[in-house]
Amino acid sequence: MSSEEEKPKLNIIKLSKMPLKLVMERDFLRLSPEDKIETLIKGLEHRTCAVITDENGKLLGFISIDEVVNLIVPPSDYILVGMDAIKEAHLDWERPVKEIMNPRPITLSPNDRLGYALEVMLETGVKQFPVVDRGKR
Fold first, then answer.
1. Exposed / middle / buried, residue 14 (Cβ in 10 Å: 0-12, 13-18, 19+)
2. Angle 130-40-80 from CA coordinates, rounded to 5°
3. How many other CB atoms sit within 10 Å of the CB of residue 86?
4. At 11, is the secondary structure helix, strand, or coil?
5. Three-class SS of residue 31?
6. Within the chain, where are the H helices?
7. 132-135, long-range: CB within 8 Å, 24+ apart, which pairs?
8. Residue 132: phi, psi to the nearest 5?
9. Could you tell me which residue, 82 or 109, shows the higher pLDDT?
């Protein structure tokens, strides 16, 4: 038997039919709209996104690490001004996260298939989505 025959084959069709609830990340940062950007930045140290919810757990907004990076790192045409000055001007750490969150993120359902999620990623360029049930929780 060759070494290729011994390795299990990855079945892409089976994976594409797998529901998101089996593969979705469950360890995410949950914040309220009034939490400060500083809390967001510190909380994202080992995470890639944050969900903003009301007291009942209903999704109000979403922030990915990519969106935070875009807030901190200025566009390349600002480089001549000075990075420190730009960072200070663009990001007030005391502002509430509701001012920078995406209030209408694309959402997926726990029962959506992995293949569908990949299609949405390819079509939109978005890498992360909140997965919510019908009650938006």
1. exposed
2. 110
3. 16
4. coil
5. strand
6. 3-6, 12-16, 37-43, 65-72, 83-90, 114-124
7. 132/59, 132/107, 132/108, 133/109, 134/109, 135/58
8. -130, 155
9. 109
pLDDT tens per residue, range 103-113: 999 999 999 99
Torsion of CA 55, 59, 65, 69, to 10 degrees: -90
What are the tokens at 73? 């790192």
Half-sphere exposure of residue 53: CA atoms within 13 angstroms, side-chain side: 16
Q: Is the pTM of this model over 0.85?
A: no
What span, in angstroms and rounded, lies between the C-alpha atoms of 55 and 33? 10
User: Smallest Cα–Cα separation from 38: which of 97, 88, 84?
Assistant: 97
Name the amino acid, one letter, at 89. A
pLDDT above 60 for 2 = no
Instruction: Identify the three-state secondary structure at position 19.
Output: strand
Each residue's pLDDT tens digit, 12-52:
888 889 999 998 888 889 999 999 999 998 998 888 899 99
Whether the CA torsion 18, 19, 21, 25 is positive or negative: it is positive
Q: What is the DSSP letter of 75?
A: P
